[in-house]
Amino acid sequence: MNILFLCHGHPGLQTGGTEIAALALFRALRAEGSTGLFVAGVSALHRPASPGTPFQSIGDAEDEVLMRTEAFDRFFLSQTDLHGIGLEFARLLEEQRPDVLHIHHPLLIGVEPIHLIRRTLPEARIVMTLHDYYGICAHEGLMRTPEGQLCRAASPDACRRCLPERSATEFRMRELHVRAMYRLVDHFISPSRFLADRYIAWGLPAEKISVLANGLEEAAPAPHRSGARRRDRVAFFGHFNPFKGSMGALAASAALSEAGVGHALALHGGTEHQTPAFLAQFNDRLAAAPSARHHGPYARHALASHMGRADWVVMPSVWWENAPLVIQEAFQHRRPVIASAIGGMAEMVKDGVNGLLIPPDDPPALAAAMRRAATEPGLWRRLCGGIAKPVTVRQAARTHLALYRRLHGAAPARRSAA
Asked: Which of 114, 303, 338, 374 has the lowest tally of Cβ within 10 angstroms?
């Protein structure tokens, strides 16, 4: 099949879980015999513009390109340059003539390309993976209030409490616009049941959503530490921001150190694009946790080495994570996970089976779980035994291909792109 992927970024420029999962799937589909193109959005934040063309190459792969998407309205998820990049994208569609177009995020790309695809290639099938809640939530897709309360549904009044500078009319216009574009999608994929249920409650037809796990590239598990008397080394992987739970992990580590509980907390990830206030608080928390160390950003090829020095992986996120790549990677390397008991995290981590679950945004509970992890005899070994091998990207590619073929083989339906 000829398949075109649209994603809001490329791992060569930004290493988010969505970008990594999308590109890995595209390459696995190519290995299965498919042809196509991986088109990633890019702005000046990641790479300076090149005059003369909205498309740029990246690396040596001829089927992976960047598309300039500077004119993006983040609130409305709208690509406003329809007379520039829109026309160029339409030409690309006519040249490539893909059978399936798989959209992996509306950020930077916008939702308008869905309409453009339907108008330009009416017989092509459009698939969209719902990696998070951006379609529902205008507050960065977090479904979490600035005060830290988790949110289960969007409404103009509730959303204005998060973004008071926006009117109720604007929220309603955003909802109507996104819904109109999403109605043109043939099928949605959700990596977690939790996220699928949120979108069904929002109004997407349940029969148009399949729950399919993201796949991991196969890798040999990092060896466990040999001869360790205690399994007290914990690792945090991910970008440091107010929502991933790093502050709670540092507070828990500080409490354990004050109580005389031996442990080590290794923090792996970058702090770019964060506010000075957050960075100051992060550095203060780090200074107050003598058993914690921030190792900075890491290359993906170094992941196994970092995992090899850890006994546990901690993911105390304070928002509804969907299907965190970090948890899949921890299980691939046979490390039990201590995670918040919400969203897709609670779907992947089974308390007492392959990890430990804690209430979100609760440093004392996290400290108690880390103390238990470090001191309870036999717990680590038992939880390691409960870890199932995650889905490989090759398996995911074959599952996706089956879905594409089913959609493409269905009788063409007449649609309105008006």
From this structure: 303
